[in-house]
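WP5 quarterly update. Target: Glycosyltransferase. Source organism: Carboxylicivirga linearis. Length: 367 aa.
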Amino acid sequence: MRLLLLNSIGRSKWGGGEKWMLMTAKNLISRGHEVYIGCSANSLLEQHSKAENLPVLPINIYSDFSLLGILKLKQYYKQKAFDVIIGCQNRDVRIAGYLVKKILKSKCLVYSRQGVQLLNKSIKYKFSFLPFCDGIITNTYSIKKEYDSYGWWDKDFVKVIYNGVESQNHDLEGFNFNEYLKPSTENPFIIFSAGRLSTQKGFRYLIDAAKKVVINHPDTYFFIAGKGKLQRELNEQIVRNGLSSNVFLIGFHENIIPLLKKADLFILPSLFEGMPNALMEAMSAGVPVISTNVNGVSELMQDQQHGLIIPPADPEALSSSILKMIEDKNYRDMGLEGKKHVANNFTVDKMVDEIESFLEEGIRIKS
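Structure tokens (predicted):
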């Protein structure tokens, strides 16, 4: 199978969808398939791909009408004769679909991979997206249920394949949080969260919740790993809430495992997600978790068994749940249950098995 994973995400952006691409590419290549990463030149995605020794095809796509992008993709298609192209942005699907279906009239399959909901029930999507797409791969049944309700396709058009979490390197040294702690701290409780500093991730609600927690437990510390356009705004909120000694924005970390190894609790305060990788990684590390009830979270974990699930945008519910975890001597049991659950149900091998079978069956039917 010759596969192109195409992603025109901005040069400086990196997230769960890009991690999925590299994980999928590495594992399919190890199984003997020919897989390429198509992305913008000089992008973070290109840098990460090359660091993993993955073959990269520079394709700059800036819009639905990116002529140079179409021409470059056409050139690579004639060289590689892809069996499947998976587009990770809507414009990737439109451009790839237009090329192979309208210009080349080839049998190449074009799928859309969506880790979060990228379509709504707008007529523009029915006529500007559907004609160029052979199917959608997503990671939650909540997205499939929403899409199927539009009535635009049959029940097999949207395929759910859960994300997998890679085996963790237990030899990595844990992150040193001590440099951030007040000298008088004897028994710190470390709370960790990670993600882009954007509205979607809900960190403003976490910072609001932290105020009540710190009043009750002054030796509780919050660490948020990530970067983004809200960094200044969130720092101002931390100062305004009088939390400069207890809440810290610690920047982007390529690998969050060292931080998880020293964390007592992981929190996902997002307003929307697909199947959140950071939450899955935290559970895989055996860290107790609190998550907002968004999209695939209820498919990944069970409330009260693997952690606590709360409503989004509710700092009062969040602070109450954090206090419950701090004061519950047996709270770590949920972390151990979560670790077993992820190990049994969300492995990379299982994810790649399903991707491989799905794509090969599509090729067989098309031919």
